[in-house]
Amino acid sequence: MHALLVEDDDRMAHALGIALAQRGHTVRRVGRASDALQHAHEAEFVLLDLGLPDLDGLELLRRLRAVCAAPLIVVTARCGERDIVQGLRAGADDYVIKPFRTAELMARIDAVRRRTDVPSGGRNAGDGDTGGPVRTGDVEIDLGARTVTVAGAEVRLPRREYDVLAFLAARPGEVHSREEILDRIWGDVFLTASRSLDVHVAGVRAKTGRPGLIRTVRGFGYQLGDGGREDGP
């Protein structure tokens, strides 16, 4: 796999480059946002530091997501809850805080790649259901085409937000625990503490303009709703 490593610290970049190469990855390391955008089309996955000299890392993340669908992990010293939430909302597949254990980062890379690599003809987050679209209220989720329309207008969701919605839509009558969703979509039940799932659920509600599209089951998890007003947080 070809990694794009966006890191302006030479020592950190050197250490990560060695660790990635030892696991069979080829690496292009860049230290500026402009270079990252130039080489984004080559990447099969991206490691992104947020502290860059020429552009805020979150803004670069948004720009990368506009041109690059490769799995992306933020690797940064920014550890505030607001930073983590913003990174996930901007399109990061995972968020790793420095300092970190190299083995853990490599495991997270493998996990992100497993859950984002869908073989040709394989199954998507909705277990590959390719039957008729799922409708709830004025929302239609087409699991085969991976599209969402609200009142007849298409709404474009980031990949992970769509995956959460598709998983729930594939089983509209079932309530799913947080752990089940995290394991199925993220491949890691321990992401509960990072609020990744909550952030992506909030993103679906906001982008569709239908707060009740994903219904909260207090103390347990989520279920596909009717698209109306949500009763609680």
From TrEMBL:
GO terms for cellular component: cytosol; protein-DNA complex. The modification 4-aspartylphosphate is found at residue 49. InterPro entries: CheY-like_superfamily, OmpR/PhoB-type_DNA-bd, Sig_transdc_resp-reg_C-effctor, Sig_transdc_resp-reg_receiver, WalR-like, WH-like_DNA-bd_sf. Pfam families: Response_reg, Trans_reg_C. Residues 131-226 form the OmpR/PhoB-type domain. The keyword Disulfide bond does not apply. Keywords: DNA-binding, Phosphoprotein, Transcription, Transcription regulation. Residues 2-113 form the Response regulatory domain. One of its GO terms (biological process) is regulation of DNA-templated transcription. Residues 131-226 bind DNA. The keyword Transcription applies. One of its GO terms (molecular function) is phosphorelay response regulator activity. It comes from the Bacteria. PROSITE patterns: OMPR_PHOB, RESPONSE_REGULATORY. This is Sensory transduction protein RegX3.
